[in-house]
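Sync notes, pocket subgroup
Present: LS, DG
LS reminded everyone that the earlier model was apo-only. Rerun requested with 2-acetamido-2-deoxy-beta-D-glucopyranose included. Inputs:
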Amino acid sequence: MAKTLTLAIFVTTILAALHQTTVAQELHVVGDSLGWIVPPGGPIAYSTWASLQTFSVGDILMFNFTTGQQDVAMVTKEAYDACNSTNPILLQTTGPVNITLPSAGLYYFIGTMDTHCFLGQKLTVDVTGTSGPATSPAAPPPPPMVPVATPPRAPVTYVVGDELGWIVPPGGPIAYSTWAAGKTFFVGDTLVFNFQNGTQDVAEVTKAAYDSCDTTTPATVLTTSPAKITLTTSGDYFFTSTYSRHCFLGQKLAITVMASTTSGPTPPPRTPVPAPPRAPVTYVVGDKLGWLVPPGGPIAYSAWAYDKTFFVGDTLVFNFTNGTQDVAEVTQAAFDSCNTATPTTILTTSPAKITLTTAGSYFFTSTYPRHCFLGQKLAINVTATSSSPPGSIAETPNAYSPTAGGPLSSASSSAAPSTTAISLFCVTFLSIVTTFLL
Ligand SMILES: *[C@@H]1O[C@H](CO)[C@@H](O)[C@H](O)[C@H]1NC(C)=O
Ligand SMILES: *[C@@H]1O[C@H](CO)[C@@H](O)[C@H](O)[C@H]1NC(C)=O
Ligand SMILES: *[C@@H]1O[C@H](CO)[C@@H](O)[C@H](O)[C@H]1NC(C)=O
Ligand SMILES: *[C@@H]1O[C@H](CO)[C@@H](O)[C@H](O)[C@H]1NC(C)=O
Ligand SMILES: *[C@@H]1O[C@H](CO)[C@@H](O)[C@H](O)[C@H]1NC(C)=O
Ligand SMILES: *[C@@H]1O[C@H](CO)[C@@H](O)[C@H](O)[C@H]1NC(C)=O
Ligand SMILES: *[C@@H]1O[C@H](CO)[C@@H](O)[C@H](O)[C@H]1NC(C)=O
């Protein structure tokens, strides 16, 4: 009853917004020149497009499509995930369609014709109240913890299952083990379990109870979503739901939390060396392209780096739009796997300048969701010049200034926005769900 009323109010708001033109701020043509079609490359097309936009209240989404060949429906998250077009919030069949975004929040759009949604004609839009980048859910204040030692990085808030949330996963227990596999948990980190009140809970249990799915005597049960659990001690943690059959059906998560003294990720050792063979050079990464998700994929930055030689003392400048990208230095393993959970360094302000102070390999990406997977990554080798005359540094004494504290020299750095990251897992998982439902 209350649900129906809420929905009715929501629909009214949307319809009102459709006729409202005065508050328009920015027009976003969905997919740009691609328009609103079944995208050739699958759902990544629109998620990429959306990740490069900032949606504010009052902005207009234009779905540009040919009447009769496509349509657009605004649906609930559940319907979006399942590509269920049975009961859309709003359906428009005559293109092009303008939709004004009436308030902050997440909006879900799909094409309802044939298998269009399953094939990737779907779009999630995260509308922020401000002009800043989207963040959801809000990160909690620093947890009241008793750290064993200084953590190797700032505490991270993990949303369990990312967009999937905390449910009985369609694919069985592999869903949460996959989610946890790429992550490192340290004392001080927080887990957020998102679920529908009254349909799940979060129970912390012993290993034996976890293995046997005996949920009769859990250590702790949290029944209200979002349930936040700060990991205050190192060791193994086991979570499930006490609802009937949930554990057996795969709603279970096991993680190992590390104290920070011995296990922190460390950048590969580099050898400090004396002098560059020429005056230091400042490189603008990507030149005019700047630092973004490159249209053509990862080849953009490897091609850019290909004909360049980097020496100790050179500087990289990453030019990007504040709030839409960042620059993270990561390990080779993290670079290869696009695991941006624990970067060595993150710079969030453009232009980000990095002076290469030691020889060795450097790996850069952006911690924003999907950016790494889509090709925003740069690997370079920095050469020391052991053969260069020791005195050559004196010729350019003020041209560069290596930082004593670490490999990077920069004015600013701050915490990663990766707490809201939608990992490849989710993309993969959506395809699993899709397959499952087909
Ligand atoms: C909408 O699509 C048509 C046909 O592809 C194209 O000619 C037109 O320029 C598009 N409009 C916008 C605003 O992109
Ligand atoms: C699709 O959604 C409708 C209600 O919106 C529901 O009745 C129906 O069972 C759903 N279909 C599937 C396949 O989930
Ligand atoms: C959509 O909005 C844009 C920008 O306000 C406007 O130019 C265009 O005519 C509108 N199209 C429709 C179909 O309302
Ligand atoms: C669950 O219930 C709590 C307390 O009633 C409420 O604050 C919260 O918003 C609810 N969460 C969801 C996801 O409905
Ligand atoms: C950085 O990008 C902006 C906008 O694209 C451009 O105006 C500026 O010249 C660029 N700066 C450098 C150093 O390339
Ligand atoms: C990014 O933000 C910094 C600090 O607020 C500012 O100095 C800089 O000009 C901004 N860069 C761009 C490209 O907007
Ligand atoms: C860096 O050097 C290593 C070893 O010499 C090589 O395997 C790798 O391809 C180089 N990377 C780049 C980006 O040139």
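DG: The radius of gyration is 24 Å.
LS: Residues 24, 27, 60, 62, 96, 98 surround 2-acetamido-2-deoxy-beta-D-glucopyranose (ligand 3) (CB under 6 Å).
Action: DG to write up.
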